[in-house]
Amino acid sequence: METAAPGETPPAAEPIPDDPSRVKGKELVVPICYGTCAYWLGKKADEYHSHKWTVYLRGAEHEDLSHCIEKVVFNLHPSFKEPVRVLEKPPYEVTETGWGEFEIGVTVHFASDAGEKPLELSAPLKLYLEDTEKGKAESKAAKKPVVKEKYEEIVFHEPREEFAKRIEGHKPKKAPETEITPVLGKRDDRDELLKIATARKVVAERIGVVKQQLDALS
Ligand code: SLL
Question: Which of 73, 108, 121, 162 has the most other CB atoms within 10 Å of its CB?
């Protein structure tokens, strides 16, 4: 089981020990989004609490993923009280106030019938659009939350048959809404569309070159 960002070649699959309960040649894909969303506290800001932020993990379409996720563990910076936060049901979110940016560890534990190891992800907490004095001032002036989100596809290679059946037969439902839901909205497809458009252009150019070569031969 691993993840691959769209447009990237997935890392080579780990060899799966021969397990008759696994479906040969099958792949089960669960799209997720995770990241951070931060607001400057404005007048309420003090030296150690300049921002209110949330780290989250969710289904790409805001769906409830509790049928395949047992819990999500967020590992905060040790300067926070009880830095290991365990969320056993959606919304998988932790909201805090603080002053600095750091890397948040996000460990996804799957339902026990998946028979998969936990997935280790990392969400860089972004408080400012850019880490320069100018960028910081602009982020504050914009009065808009700074959202740093990653889209990933969790790929279960040759999943256990019972698990795959359960996941595929599951009727999707929405995860509970939270304060950050309206800010995140739907996943922004612009990056992917841009990649596809670029790839199309490259392919069209190559076809042009091959056509010219063929013409030269005839
Ligand atoms: C930095 N390497 O130096 C980072 C560390 C830590 C942020 C950032 C704690 C808040 C509180 C907090 O915001 N820690 O004490 O409640 O930028």
Answer: 108
Beta strands, E only, 50-184: 51-59, 69-75, 84-87, 92-98, 103-110, 119-124, 146-157
Residue 108 Cα to ligand 1 midpoint, Å, equals: 24
Could you tell me the pTM of the whole model? 0.78
Which residue type does 48 have?
A: Y
Per-residue pLDDT 10s for the chain (218 aa) are 656 666 665 555 555 567 889 999 999 999 999 999 999 998 898 999 999 999 999 999 899 999 999 999 999 999 999 999 999 999 999 999 999 999 999 999 999 999 999 999 999 999 998 777 887 787 777 778 899 999 999 999 999 999 999 999 999 999 999 999 988 865 556 666 677 777 888 888 888 889 888 989 87
Element (H, E) at 4: strand 2-4
The pairing of beta strand 103-110 with beta strand 92-98: unpaired
Count of CB atoms within 10 A of residue 22's CB? 19
For a pocket test of ligand 1, which of 48, 82, 99 has the largest count of ligand atoms closer than 8 A to its C-beta? 99
Atom of ligand 1 nearest to the CA of 96: 16
d(CA 76, ligand 1 centre) in Å: 9
How far, in Å, from the CA of 160 to the mean position of ligand 1?
41
